[in-house]
Structure formats: C-alpha cells, structure tokens
Amino acid sequence: MAGPSRKKSGAPAGVPLPADMDLDTLYGASGADPEELFDEEEEELIIVPPVRLLPREELAAAALRVPLFEQAIRLAGWVGAGRPVDEFGELGREQEELAAAELELGAGDEGALAVARAWTLALDLALVELGEPDSDGADTAHPTAALTALSGGDPEAVLEAWQLAADTVADVVVEADLDPNELQALEEASEGRDEEESEAMYERLEAAREQASGLLDDALQVLYEARAFADTEADETVPLGVLAALLVVPDGEEPTEEMLGDITNVMVALDPMLQDLADIGVLDYRPIDPALFDESGDTAPDAVGPGLDGDVDEDEAARFGLARLTALGVHQVRQWLLEEGYEAPLIGDLARGTAAELLEGICEAVNVLPDEEIAEWLVDREPLPAAAELLAAARGNDLTGPTRRLLCAAALARLDGAAEPALREVLADPELAGLATTWLAGRGVEDFDLPGRPVMLWTMVDTLAAQLIEEGPEESGFAAFMVQLSDEEKPAELFAELWRIEHPYTTAVLEAVGERHPDKSTAKEARKAAYKARSRMGSQQQ
Question: How many whole angstroms from its chain centre is CA 175?
C-alpha cells in the first residue's frame, strides 16, 4: 500500500492531539524522523488514527465466510487425489462445469466463471499444485499442505492465507485499471520492433500503475478513517461521490466545474476496484448502478450530485455507490499501512500500563483518541485506587503537565463517589487542588476548604495552558475560557497577579490572551503582563 497523498490530513478537526503543541519534543521522545511523516509531494503530516480490531479468532472466522475465499478452499479440497488440468494449469470447461455442479456454484457460464475465479485464487494461495501426469500423460493438480492447515481451522493459518488473497486481489485490480490497448501495444513493442518506443511505453504504464495504486490507497485510507471516527455503522459508510470528492477537492474549497468532472472520473475508476476488493471481503460495497450509464447517455454517469449535496433520496444516492470497510478490511488496511512504515496504532495500546504511562503516552502520541484510551484504562479498575494513581501521574510543573492534568480530569469525571477520598487527599497540593475542588464541587460536596488565591491563579494559568496546547489559541475552548476569566475579574488587577505566577506556560498564556482577546484594553493589559513575565523569566535564567 503506497503512502497517502490526499489533500486531507489524517485526523478530523476537533480530535484532541495534545502532542501537536511540541513536535520537536514529540519526535525526540518517539525516535521518529519528522521528515518521514510528511508526504514528499504534499508536505503534510500523515496521521493514521487508531482503530479497534476484532480478536484474531473472529477475524479468521469472518475470512472463512468470504464467498470467494471459501470457494477457493472448497475447490482445492474437491481436487482430492488429483484432477486433470491443461498445460497452463487450468481446469478447462468440462472440469469447471463438473466442479460447479458438485460444489453448487451455479450452472452454465455462471458456474464455470465462479470456478475459474476460485481456481485462480487457489493457485495463487498455493492450495493446489501441479503434480505428476496421470496414466494418460495428462497434467494433474493436487492439494497441498497449505490446504491441510486451513482445513484444520488454525486462525493464524487462515488469516495468513486470507491476507495473501487480499494482497493478490489488490495487485490484480491495479493492473486491471491499466489501458488494455497500451498493454497490447507494449507487448508488440517489446518483441523487438521498437526498443525506444517500448521503453517509453513501460514508463507510461508504470506511471499509470502508480497512479491507480495511489488512488486505491487513498480511497482505502479515507474508509479506514471513517471506521476509526464513526459512532455508528451508518457513519462508517461513505457514498462513492463523497469518497471521490475527498480525493479530488482540497480542504476548505468548493468543487469547481472541472473538479466535478474529475470526481466523476475517480468514481468510475474506483468502482471496479472496490467491487473486486468487496469480493475478497475487504469491503462492503454497493457498486454504481449500471443503469445510470444508460440514463446519462454518456460513457460515465453524472454521479457527483447525489453524493455531495445530500438533497437526493438515500435510495437514489445509493445508486451512485456506497463503500464501507469490513472488520477484515480494517485489519488488512492496517497491515498495508504498517508494511509501508506508517504508525497505525490500536485503541488500547496506551491503556496497558500505569496511569503515568497512560497520560504521558497520550501526550506524546500524534494519533490517539484520548477518551477511548482512558475508557480502556479504567476497565476493571476500582475508583479509589484508580483516582489516586491518576492524580499522582498528573503532578509535575513541566511542559506536558497541563495536558496530563486535563486528561486526568477527564478520567476522574468517569469515576463515581467512591473516588472522593483520593480527591480530598490532594486539596493541599497546589498543582492538584484546583482540579480536586472542581471535581468535589461538581458532585455537590461542600465540607472542604477552598484553595487560596495563589493556587487558584496557578490553576487558571494551568487550565488556559491546557486549552492552548490541546486546541490552539483560535479554538472555542481557549477563547471561551479566556473571555470568561476576564469577565469575572478586573483585567488590570488580574494580569498584575498572573505575570508573577511560577508556571512554565505563564508567558505563552498571556501572549495568547494579548493576541486573541476581543476587548482591546484587556488584550493590551495581557500583553503588558506577558512582557513582564518574559523579563522575570530572563532575569531568573541569568
């Protein structure tokens, strides 16, 4: 699977990626080379979202239910002690019809075609092999040990064979997208008629192959992201017009007339490729209704509108194609991404260790769903010890401290009143007192002393810093909290106190408020305070 080259970045807007605030620190910690995570052509960060996979036993069971894969296995078993084949290893029409009848794969041309496809896959998977000629001197085919392993139901053997089948089909669909006239001309030219022309054709075909492969890869990544971020199965399904538009139209732009034509062309190119991948179980796919080609009176249907504007009846829109990765497909696309060197994490990868590993791991990862990791970590944990461990992990006046405390608060919000003693325990801790106060007050607890003014001011800076790191200065969370604090306090007096707060993000927070606050006088006070904070930091470093 080639590297993504789409116009979209890997994560939708609004998904928290805390480590975005400090890429140098992130890559230093992870050992990754930042340059390797950028597409050479687009120069954009490629982020592969985490996904959840079915257990391997369930994936193997699903593979055995894929009709084409299952037919290949049954056909290899049907070979038994041997079946005659021609010099090319093909069964021939007589044997195809016999197999179709005995395996109930259909009659006539339909059955023969089903057998031919299954036989090709059986050969590709080495489930059958050519053996010694029979008594009449005819070539024969026999089952192999690979078939024996699959028949035994070993999940690993089944998955390995199915993955090879998916690889094979993916390669074939890319080749099938090439112009047959070009292939024929190349074959003629390669016979020595014109060496220079032959070389030029090879280059054109290789370029076309790479283009087709890249198109398919990009489409599969869009579907992978749809599965990763979807809340329902309906959200996992992408209309073919929308899929094509995501591959053609740059982010934030409306499609032009020229782009609409390109979108239709992409849909028509993808349709047969997705159909073949659906046959091997990578996709659930409803192809373009062939009748649309007749209705359009052209070589391609005007398929863009229903996929993009949402004004057409769902059944009508579905005629233009619908695609969704299966659970097997998610597994396979992830394998392809890993083989290409991309990081393709699983949900729960960060939830297997301590609370400190959980919070720091989320801070350092560029492709993470914090809520999912937190939920996984809390499974089967008792509220009180879990809260105590989370609070201990949230301590620290370092660069990731604000994000750890934000994540800690999100985790604590999932715990019931049994966690209360752990929150009371940290009321005297200046780094955690504000967090604990918010949690207790939110549950109606009143019998505790509120932290003093210095602690509340430090917590204010810490909370603003967390919002700044998570969302950036222009997003709603930071902006809303920024305006709220200045509405509740007199700006001049507030900022006169804030610039003295010993927090690693004091200057950054004040600068962001000074740049973004809608009230000019408040913004001015924040900039003055930021200047004083920078001066104080400079004097301390001398």
Answer: 26
Helix axes 67-79, 155-176, angle to 10 degrees: 110
Both tokens of 456, joined, read 């509340």
Report CA torsion sign: 304, 310, 316, 322.
positive
pTM comes to: 0.78
Scanning the structure block, which residue is given the tokens 């000629």? 133
In whole angstroms, what is the distance from residue 526 CA to residue 248 CA? 43
Q: How many CB atoms lie within 10 A of CB 80?
A: 9
Distance CA 202, CA 198 (A): 6
Per-residue pLDDT 10s for the chain (542 aa) are 644 344 333 333 332 322 332 323 222 223 333 333 334 444 456 789 999 999 999 999 999 999 999 999 999 999 988 898 988 889 989 999 999 999 999 989 999 999 999 999 999 999 999 877 766 667 889 999 999 888 887 899 999 999 999 999 999 888 765 655 555 655 555 555 566 667 777 787 788 888 888 999 999 999 999 999 998 888 899 999 999 999 999 888 888 888 888 999 999 999 999 999 999 999 999 999 888 876 555 555 554 444 454 455 677 778 899 999 999 999 999 999 999 999 999 999 999 999 999 999 999 988 899 999 999 999 999 999 999 999 999 999 888 999 999 999 999 999 999 999 999 999 999 999 999 999 999 999 999 999 999 999 999 999 989 988 877 666 656 777 777 766 777 888 888 999 999 999 999 999 998 888 888 888 899 999 999 999 887 766 65
Could you tell me if 243 and 323 are in contact, meaning their C-beta atoms sit under 8 angstroms apart? yes
Block residue for tokens 């809260």: 387
Secondary structure letter of residue 36 according to DSSP? G
Cα separation of 130 and 528, whole Å? Answer: 84
Structure tokens at 303: 């398929």
